[in-house]
Design brief:
Ubiquitin-like (UB roll), 2 domains, five-stranded mixed β-sheet, 3 helices
Length: 168
């Protein structure tokens, strides 16, 4: 019952000199990166705490949203405490702006849609309803076209927001 069983190891022996390569990008828009050699077998959570957070603190203040990719695959944050780096792997970490930055981008996009709607509406009126150009009814139709484009812009923008996916 308590016999020693000789079987091949179903794992990997990691020595103290084994490392993975970590590339930290402090912002998705930044061109500069910082590269580290991290000890293999560290969890992604430990890597973020020890290496990514100090880089973000030094540059822009700590932001809680980080995307981590190992071998090109994104690692969901709920798996960070369980996923470990292996010898020779490439780990990429990108610090993302908080919700305030998304709101700013969204506001700018909405403003651009309104400007485009005001510029495109006269051309659409002239193309599809040339008899109404220069009339009061034409002005009303042109306003309705601009309003429709302006209303459709935010709706379509919200369709592209990523929704969390369920994991099996």
């Amino acid at each position: 019952m308590n016999q020693i069983v000789r079987a091949p190891l179903d794992g990997e022996v990691i020595g103290p000199a084994d490392c993975a390569r970590l590339i930290v990008k402090p912002s998705p828009f930044a061109t500069e990166t910082e590269t580290f050699e991290v000890p293999a077998a560290m969890t992604v959570a430990e890597i973020v705490e020890a290496f990514v957070k100090p880089v973000a603190d030094a540059r822009h203040g700590w932001k809680k949203r980080v995307v981590v990719r190992i071998g090109g695959e994104t690692v969901p944050e709920e798996f960070w405490p369980r996923v470990r780096a292996k010898r020779g792997q490439l780990i990429e970490a990108v610090v993302l702006p908080g919700k305030g930055a998304f709101q700013l981008i969204r506001t700018i996009a909405f403003a651009l849609v309104a400007i485009v709607a005001a510029a495109v509406a006269p051309y659409l009126l002239q193309t599809f309803l040339p008899g109404l150009v220069g009339t009061l009814a034409g002005a009303a139709v042109k306003s309705l076209i601009a309003l429709g484009i302006s209303a459709a812009g935010p709706v379509s923008f919200n369709l592209f927001k990523r929704t969390p996916r369920c994991l099996p």
